[in-house]
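Worked example 3. Consider a protein that binds copper (II) ion.
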Amino acid sequence: MRAACEERCEGDANAGHCLRACAALPGTPTAGDGTILRFWPSLILAVLLASPAFAYQDSSQAIYGGAISGRVTLAGTAPKPSPLAITKDRDVCGRKPLYDQSLLVGPDGGIAGAVVTLPAVVSGKPFKAESAVKFDQVNCEYVPHVAAFPAGSTVDILNSDGILHNIHTYSRKNPALNLAQPGFKREIQVTINRPEVIHVECDAHNWMSGWWYVTGNPYYAVTGRSGNFSIKNIPPGTYTVEVWQEKLGRQKRSVAVKAGATTKADFRFSGVRR
Ligand SMILES: [Cu+2]
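Given these inputs, the predicted complex is written out as structure tokens:
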């Protein structure tokens, strides 16, 4: 599999990236008994990392809960997204102008793609891992730019472009992925078991950048175009609400939730962190 991939890299203008992508594929086994011993540590690690380990438990009782809703905004003038330089595969990646998506601010200051969580909720509504979180590659952009999902979910990494991409994740609690996705491979499925924020890049197209925000409980939301969010069915209590945005960092604040009521919680960022 690896050898065939490497063959296809010949003549590729970006052969280095292509070969690095191929290195993620299984090669022909060549080692003897020593292989098993050498791979024991990674096997044990893989088993340890394979099961979700976090404190959340579904409540066995019906929740008469409350909600938190609000808006995430940026103070001042909205920055204009910078155009990206398309240096490869222009026939596909250059179908439309691409812009840096690391901070998407609407005309009225609403920030899209910020993730709102309640990390300290340990019991409440059912925790359902998703079976098919869509994460597509379209015109050499990740769609969505930020995908949020509960730990244990399976991500369907789609390749609508039909060209070689490479899913390279930067993670600390989950195994890092470095998977070639040639044009003919329209889908790769991966299960992500541990809560953390994971940066996703493509070694074939260095401008591609996306995020997987993996949560430890079912209380999360991603802001829409106008910066709005809503989280429902929260057991009454006082919780820290956390907002994360890739360029602005995090904001936290304590919010009281009452049964049958919606508490407003707006977050305002004053500028890009240094
Ligand atoms: Cu790519």
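Take a moment to read the result before moving on. The first helix runs from residue 2 to 9. The two ends are 44 Å apart (CA to CA).
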